[in-house]
Amino acid sequence: GVADTCPDADAGRAVGERVAEGANPDLPTRLYASCAGAARDTLLAWAAPVGGTYVFDTNGSDFDTVLAIHAGRCGDELACDDDGGDGRASRIELALEQDAQVTISVSGFRGRNGAWQLNITPPE
Questions:
Q1: Residue 6 confidence (pLDDT)
Q2: How many CB atoms lie within 10 A of CB 32?
Q3: Is the Cβ–Cβ distance between 46 and 13 less than 8 Å?
């Protein structure tokens, strides 16, 4: 089931530019994004190092990404964005409690794929 393959990797509590990067040409679709027809998702576990509002974005990716954030390990969707970032990149602002565990889904609009990067800006 989904729980067996989700998440793919653990991004720990990292923040900053290029917290994670990769490409998604051969991946299945496990979590469906509510805000766009998205496919081929990379799923990353992440935990908030401090409480506050974070900005998650895929600026710097070379294709049309869709970004979604799910509670815990691949749980309910908390937020979703298609083109809120630079160009066709995605951007989500989300307030989280300290130590909150989420799963970040980076996928391609209508199954597009290419090289993506995930950036996480911590609270000021």
A1: 86
A2: 15
A3: yes
Q: Is the pTM of this model over 0.70?
A: yes
> Is the C-alpha dihedral spanning 59, 120, 52, 8 positive or negative?
positive
- Residue pointed to by tokens 């393959």: 5
Q: What is the CA 33 to chain-centroid distance, rounded?
A: 10
Question: Which of these, 24, 90, 22, lies nearest to 59 by C-alpha position?
Answer: 90
Tokens of 19: 């917290």
Token pair in block for residue 33: 């994004």
Residue ranges, the chain, pLDDT below 70: 1-4
Overall residue count recorded for the chain in this entry = 124
Two tokens, residue 68 = 């979604």
